[in-house]
Amino acid sequence: MGESGKFSLINLGEVSKPANVLIEQMSDAVGGVYHPFQIRRIARTEAKIRAVARLKITELEHRAMSMSRLFVEEAKKQENI
């Protein structure tokens, strides 16, 4: 019973290094397979963000043009008076 106290499952020391290397290599392999999908997903998201930003700019331009048109109309009214 005194011998079992020396071997602990928590402290594996050098035995755990090959397991860590295996896990890291498997993680790299899965990441390598998923990488092209990730790039496409990021590109789609960035395109959506740009489209929304452009839509907001277009709305702003439209409002600015409406204000400009109102100023021109008011100036014409004032000239006519």
Described by its quaternary structure, the protein is single chain
| Percent range for β-strand residues | under 5%
Please mark out the parts with pLDDT under 50 across 5 or more consecutive residues, or reply none.
none
Spell out the helices and strands N to C: H
Backbone structural class: mainly alpha
Tertiary shape: rod-shaped
Q: Average pLDDT, to the nearest integer?
A: 79
N-to-C CA distance: 111 Å
* Number of strand segments: 0
Number of continuous helical runs? 1
Largest sheet: none
The percent of residues in helical segments reads: over 70%
What would you report as the Rg, rounded to the nearest angstrom? 33 Å
Helices and strands in order:
Layout: H1 16-80
Would you kindly provide a brief summary of this structure?
This protein is mainly alpha-helical.
What does this structure look like?
The longest helix has 65 residues. This protein has 81 residues and is an all-alpha fold. Helix content is 80%, strand content 0%. The model has no long low-confidence stretch (mean pLDDT 79). The radius of gyration is 33 Å and the shape is rod-shaped. It has a domain of 46 residues.
Which properties best describe this structure?
mainly alpha, 81 residues
